Structures are given as C-alpha cells and as structure tokens.
C-alpha cells in the first residue's frame, strides 16, 4: 500500500468546519451531511473540508488534539514509555499534513505543531525499529502492536514482513521434515 | 512498470523455485566434490584432461555446479561426494557467530543464504556428523546441516538490525557503499526498506500527488529513434 492510499483512508475522518454558505442536507453514499448554515459549525469528512477550504467556502476548526500543549504531553509520554502510547487520532500524521498544508491559516501555531508531530513520529519509528530488532533477535513468532497507526505500519511493514518471511524459511530448514526427503527415491 | 511485473522470487528452502532467475544463478555456483566412481568420457566437460574419450578416474577432485551435484548426488549410488565450501565450514561459522556484521557476504556469496539452504540436501553418509546423527537418534536430518543452518540463521538475525537501520535512515544518499557487502537476498530486503522510506518521504513533501513522466519515457527522449535502430 502506498502512503497516498493511507491518506485516502484518512480523508474519511470527520473534522468540524464553519461554512460561509447555506445548503440543505446532502445525501451521500457514506452518510448524510449538513445542513450547512453560515457561521454554524458542522462535521464533514476531511476530503470535503479541504475542498471547501480551497474554494474559500469555509473556515476549518482544528481538531481538539491539534494543540501545542496536548502534543507536547503526548510527545513526552511517548518518550517515557517503552511501548507505543495511544495516539489522539488513528491518522494523526495524515491529518496533520493535510490540515497544515491546506488550512494552516486556521490553525494556531502551525509550525510548532508540525515540529511536535514530526518529533512524535520519529520517536515512534525509532521505537518500532528497536522493538523489531529484539523481536527478530529473540526469534518470536507473534507480536502485539496495539497503538501503531496505519501509516507507521505501512512505512515499515513490507520490510518487516519480508524479513520475517526469510527468517521463517531459514528456521524451517532446521527441522527437516518429510519434504526434505523428496529427493530420495 | 515494476508493479505490473511479478518476478518469481528465490525459494530459500530445501527446494529452489523452478522459475526463479535468482535460484538459477545461485545453483550455478561451484561446489567442491570428488568422483566416487569413474566417469567415462566426461573429462573434457569437467575440465580434466584433453581428449574427448578420456574418463575421469575415481577419486579425482571436481568443481561441480550445484545443480549438477544435486542431480548426481544419491545416498545409495555413489557417483560423487560433496564437500562443504569453506565459507560453510567450522572456521568460517565461528567468524559468523562472533560478529555477522563484519563479513562481506557479497564476496562470500552472493547467494549465501540460498546456497547454504541448498547444501542441506547433501546428507553424505560418509560424513562423521551423520554418524553423530544416528547417535542422537533424531531420525531425519543430520547434525551437520542443522548446525550449519543455525549459523546462517544467526547470520541473518545478526545482520537484520544493520540492514533495517541503513535502509530506513539513508534518504537521498548514495547507498552503494551500504549494499556493497550485502548478499542478494539482503539487497532485495534493503530495497524494500528503502522503498517504504522513499514513498513516505515523497508523500510528506507532497510529491506523491504530482504526476510525473515515467523514468522510462524520459530516457527515450534522450536518444533519437534512428540512433537506437542504427
């Protein structure tokens, strides 16, 4: 899976916007949206929010967690713990990128937020590498990674599964079963 | 283009994948061996002596490709006996267990893991290790291939961290120095790690949403079609 596809999934997340137009309730396949009234906050998917924002038809309300204080807390918590801590959103990286790219004028202290999220990401990726290493070293066969987000899994996933696949094959060589004797006639 | 191309990957077990190009190249690697019986009229092929009628005498040393060794090797009819290449022998195995990262597997290999796995097929009855197997009464398998394989597994595990780190940290760098010492299998793994990192970085910079010409098409433009034909 490519990052763009992960982003596609992330665009289904809901955000609050304040529209400057009025529109009746619209009926879409994935659910009904609206009604839209000028000045009144309404929840819409990210893809629609970005589209409306680009057409200058709304103002974006940043998600609750997209706040310097909260993100600092999350980053510190992430550094303290050995395992992965729960993230404020399953698509925190994608939402940060999308919202900051298209609506940075609506988000207070956008640069600091970008840095904090990047720090958190780096911490988590370093942690992922560390735990993958000990996973391989101890020759485990399963692991539980509850709080990892899709983007993180996707970045290191192919590499990890392929490495484990090689390891599995090399390890099954250790137990020569029936198949190894197919050459004896 | 690469997404629509599904090459057959290497087998990496006791059996190779029949259509895997990597495995075909791997099975060309030479293996030291010895003729257990005279092989008439084969001296020319195996590079021993001149005339086409000459036969290979019993007991002569041979360097045979793995595919041929696998075909001729039979625990009942003794045509050839196979020796371990020196990198799979005790001396080198000790080196690998000391620090797997210092070994240049590309020079040693370049199909270290695949070839090592294939070597498990030769359960030579004359090996003292096999006698030990009967002693241990584990049934199938001998001590020699097992210990052999533990090493190559340890080698892989020992080198895993370095491959992961270098493939996921090197962004926009020249990676030729990093992969110079990697086995073919590890190189493929390195490429996968790099792809994950590069795709993510491209996405983050917003390059993923831009449509660019395929690198193949860009290369076409550099030379006129007539020059290619001529």
TrEMBL record, chain A:
InterPro entries: GINS_A, GINS_bundle-like_dom_sf, GINS_Psf2, PSF2_N
UniProt keyword list: DNA replication, Nucleus
Coiled-coil regions listed: none
UniProt KW DNA repair keyword: no
Primary location group: nucleus
Entry superkingdom: Eukaryota
Family designation: Belongs to the GINS2/PSF2 family.
PANTHER family: DNA REPLICATION COMPLEX GINS PROTEIN PSF2
Protein name (Swiss-Prot/TrEMBL): GINS complex subunit 2
Species: Picathartes gymnocephalus
Automatic annotation (TrEMBL), chain B:
Subcellular location: Nucleus
Gene3D superfamilies for this protein: 1.20.58.2050
SUPFAM superfamilies (alphabetical): GINS helical bundle-like, PriA/YqbF domain
Pfam families: PSF3_N, Sld5
Alphabetic keyword roster: DNA replication, Nucleus
Main localization of the protein described in the UniProt heading: nucleus
Coiled-coil intervals, chain numbering: none
Protein biosynthesis is among the record's keywords: no
Quaternary structure note: Component of the GINS complex.
Protein's UniProt name: DNA replication complex GINS protein PSF3
């Amino acid at each position: 899976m490519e990052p763009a596809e992960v982003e596609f999934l992330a665009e289904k997340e809901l955000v609050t916007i304040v529209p400057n137009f009025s529109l009746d309730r619209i009926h879409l396949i994935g659910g009904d949206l609206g009604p839209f009234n000028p000045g009144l906050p309404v929840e819409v998917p990210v893809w629609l929010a970005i589209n409306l924002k680009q057409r200058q038809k709304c103002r974006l309300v940043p998600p609750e967690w997209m706040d310097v204080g909260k993100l600092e807390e999350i980053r510190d918590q992430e550094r303290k713990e050995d395992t992965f801590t729960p993230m404020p959103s399953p698509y925190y990286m994608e939402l940060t990128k999308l919202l900051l790219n298209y609506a940075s004028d609506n988000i207070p202290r956008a640069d600091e937020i970008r840095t904090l999220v990047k720090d958190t990401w780096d911490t988590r990726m370093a942690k992922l590498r560390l735990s993958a290493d000990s996973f391989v070293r101890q020759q485990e066969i399963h692991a539980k990674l509850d709080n990892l987000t899709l983007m993180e899994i996707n970045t290191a996933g192919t590499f990890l599964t392929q490495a484990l696949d090689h390891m599995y094959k090399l390890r099954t060589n250790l137990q020569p079963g029936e198949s190894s004797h197919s050459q004896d006639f | 283009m690469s997404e629509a191309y599904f090459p057959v990957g290497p087998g990496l077990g006791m059996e190779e994948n029949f259509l895997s190009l990597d495995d075909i190249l791997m099975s060309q690697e030479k293996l030291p061996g010895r003729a257990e019986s005279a092989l008439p009229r084969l001296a020319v092929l195996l590079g021993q002596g001149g005339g086409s009628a000459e036969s290979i005498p019993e007991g002569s040393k041979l360097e045979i490709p793995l595919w041929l060794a696998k075909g001729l090797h039979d625990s009942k009819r003794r045509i050839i006996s196979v020796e371990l290449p020196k990198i799979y022998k005790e001396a080198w195995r000790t080196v690998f267990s000391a620090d797997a990262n210092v070994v240049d597997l590309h020079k040693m290999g370049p199909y270290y893991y695949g070839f090592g796995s294939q070597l498990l097929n030769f359960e030579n009855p004359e090996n003292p290790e096999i006698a030990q197997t009967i002693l241990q009464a584990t049934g199938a398998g001998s001590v020699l291939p097992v210990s052999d394989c533990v090493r190559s597994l340890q080698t892989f595990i020992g080198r895993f961290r370095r491959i992961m780190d270098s493939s996921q940290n090197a962004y926009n760098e020249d990676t030729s120095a990093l992969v110079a010492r990697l086995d073919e299998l590890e190189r493929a793994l390195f490429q996968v790690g790099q792809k994950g990192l590069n795709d993510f970085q491209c996405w983050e910079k917003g390059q993923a949403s831009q449509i660019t010409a395929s690198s193949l098409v860009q290369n076409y433009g550099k030379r006129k079609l007539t020059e290619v034909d001529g």
